[in-house]
Amino acid sequence: MAKQEDIFKNVVSHAKEYGFIFPSSEVYDGLSAVYDYAQNGVELKKNIREYWWKSMVQMNENIVGLDAAILMHPTTWKASGHVDAFNDPLIDNKDSKKRYRADVLVEDHAEKINQKAQKEIEKARARFGDAFNEEEFVATNARVVEYLSKYKEILSRLAKGMTDDLQDVKALIEELEIADPETGSRNWTDVKQFNLMFGTKLGASADSAMDLYLRPETAQGIFVNFLNVQKSGRMKVPFGIAQTGKAFRNEIVARQFIFRMREFEQMEMQFFVRPGEEMKWYHHWKETRLNWHLSLGLGKENYRFHDHEKLAHYANAAADIEFNFPFGFKELEGIHSRTDFDLKAHEQYSGRKLQYFDPELNENYVPYVVETSVGLDRMFLAVFATSLQEETLEDGSTRTVLKLPSVLAPTKAAVLPLIKRDGLPEISKKIIDDLKWDFTVAYDEKDAVGRRYRRQDALGTPFCITVDHQTIEDQTVTIRHRDTMKQDRVKISELKDIIENEVSMKNWLMKM
Ligand code: GAP
């Protein structure tokens, strides 16, 4: 089996080679943790966004959309707590001059210990087969007990240090003898807080220019528009406002490709509810969002919930949907019950009332909010990495195939004339002219048809339509299915329905 790192390297190089993702401004050697979406990537990303938008906005009559500006009044970020508390603990290595997130250094160290325990468990599973009782083994095997208790102890001391005193985190790093991952040096500075917001200026003259921030989340644009939307849309609580858009964070450790970027896109929804009803809605959205992910068919075993034990000051419940990325389970989406914290803070800082008059209760209140927040780029990585597969065929050859959920595939069908003459290209182009009203379709006449199939497999195209001499006689073509490689002879007039049936959002979302 390929090693995790190799799988991940393969994902990054496939994304570049096949026109999905390029490093930003690559001619200047790129910009750290900033990426550009190329011709196929932009289609895949757009399809993920639409799949989300359709399920959240179009399918829910009490959820509406919004597109707030990236630049917001700077007091927004004071009220939201980002100016004072949107920090990461950073530590510098005095020898290498490299900067790290102190908590990540400790977490990575703890994870190595956890991995030792998991290895013992897997070894025992292989040894005992069906008779293996994991629970009993974990509770009684001395080595596993020791590893897991050390792992938990480190994480709990880290959590305490992060809230009580950052110097305890530094002490933990020293006690665990954690070294600079790149150079091995243990010569560390103290741990300091580092604000993640990017600053910018509004206005031309140096004297009157106003300091602004590039938004670090899209959610605040929703909060400050809550009453505008409620009144102009005559919305009744409970209702939601959904938004997709760019967010910016000056991440200290920006790595793992598009998993952690400095400029990224979020898909967020704030659901405004009656105070006291938030837990009901929190559970509703946890379940609904997991079902949305599962509808894409990437495998139930690749998702898990991580319920937060330590909550942010504004939340009374929070969970992550974690996904099994090529580098392990990590956060993909957050579901947070944010109480009335944000609206109340904006009331306090703006001096305006942000309250809803509930006609059924005959009273005014500040609604509570349940938020769902998923990173579009992380979704892209989850879908792309899981879909990229290397298959060994019956004849012993291998093929690289990007088994994207067909609803998300950048190109739904490629039309291939068997040869470049005898009128076959003309028929192919006619087929494209007909299909392109409904689907993104491609034309390819270069190379032998087998090689063209492989290229479309690597691009994730669900269908290849081949036009040959029989087409001239009876208006039929072969349609090849990406995943099974099965080929059927069908009438040209049937193509639209065959493709539609396979790629329509309706059919996929109905699986929710
Ligand atoms: N409004 C809530 C909020 O922003 P968050 O957990 O900080 O919560 C939500 O971010 C989601 O945004 C994450 O689950 C992740 O998918 C995505 N995200 C956060 N930081 C990111 C980054 N630097 N690069 C890519 N995606 C990121």
TrEMBL record:
Keyword Amino-acid biosynthesis on entry: no
Reactions catalysed according to its record: tRNA(Gly) + glycine + ATP = glycyl-tRNA(Gly) + AMP + diphosphate
Boundaries of every Aminoacyl-transfer RNA synthetases class-II family profile domain copy: 176-417
Compartment(s) of residence: Cytoplasm
Main location: cytoplasm
EC numbers, comma separated: 6.1.1.14
An annotated Gene Ontology molecular function: glycine-tRNA ligase activity
Keywords: Aminoacyl-tRNA synthetase, ATP-binding, Coiled coil, Cytoplasm, Ligase, Nucleotide-binding, Protein biosynthesis
Family, as annotated: Belongs to the class-II aminoacyl-tRNA synthetase family.
Group of enzyme by EC: ligase
NCBIfam families, alphabetized: glyS_dimeric (TIGR00389), PRK04173.1 (NF003211)
Pfam family, one: HGTP_anticodon
Role noted for this protein: Catalyzes the attachment of glycine to tRNA(Gly).
Coiled coil: 107-134
Gene that produces this protein: glyQS
Sites where the protein binds substrate: 101, 217, 264-268, 371-375
Family matches, as InterPro entries: aa-tRNA-synt_IIb, aa-tRNA-synth_II, aa-tRNA-synth_II/BPL/LPL, Anticodon-bd, Anticodon-bd_dom_sf, Gly-tRNA_synthase/POLG2, Gly_tRNA_ligase_bac, GlyRS-like_core
HAMAP family in the cross-refs: Gly_tRNA_synth_B
Binding, ATP: 249-251, 259-264, 331-332, 375-378
Protein name: Glycine--tRNA ligase
Self-association state and partner proteins as the record states: Homodimer.
Native organism taxonomy: Bacteria, Pseudomonadati, Bacteroidota, Flavobacteriia, Flavobacteriales
